[in-house]
Design brief:
The protein contains 4 helices and 3 strands, in the order αβαααββ. It has a 3-stranded antiparallel sheet, covered by helices on one side. The termini are far apart. It has one domain: Urate Oxidase, CATH 3.10.270. The chain is α+β, with helices and mostly antiparallel strands.
Length: 119
């Protein structure tokens, strides 16, 4: 849910679908499922592949109560990666596909020491 849209509207806010890309370098194994959980925890609400009608109501209300800009999403993922001692470098990118604007929103953060792998 767009925080700006929510702030100026009495009757809802527009939603945005997005794509998050995370690249990591690590000292010990990090499961892809762990990264997915970090990303999914960082958005407005949990994601579900299928919803019943009453569940859809819950999800939309949950998202509306927790609006997140694309910059917030990237920052939220980065904070979780910062706390993981296995990760030495990361790059987090997110692009939200705007539903009511003719442009998309993009944010990126990169931290740590990137060492090019030996070939």
């Amino acid at each position: 849910v767009c925080p700006c849209s929510k702030a100026i509207s009495e009757h809802g806010a527009h939603n945005q679908r997005g794509l998050v890309t995370v690249h990591v370098r690590f000292t010990r194994l990090v499961w892809i499922e762990e990264l997915i959980e970090m990303i999914e925890r960082s958005g407005s609400c949990d994601l579900y592949p299928i919803l019943k009608r009453e569940d859809e109501k819950y999800v939309t209300e949950c998202a509306y109560a927790n609006p997140v800009f694309v910059e917030d999403l990237v920052r939220n993922v980065a904070l979780q990666l910062d706390r993981d001692s296995r990760i030495t470098w990361y790059k987090v990118e997110a692009e939200n596909f705007e539903s009511i604007h003719n442009h998309n929103a993009y944010a990126c953060v990169e931290r740590g020491l990137y060492k090019k792998p030996r070939v």
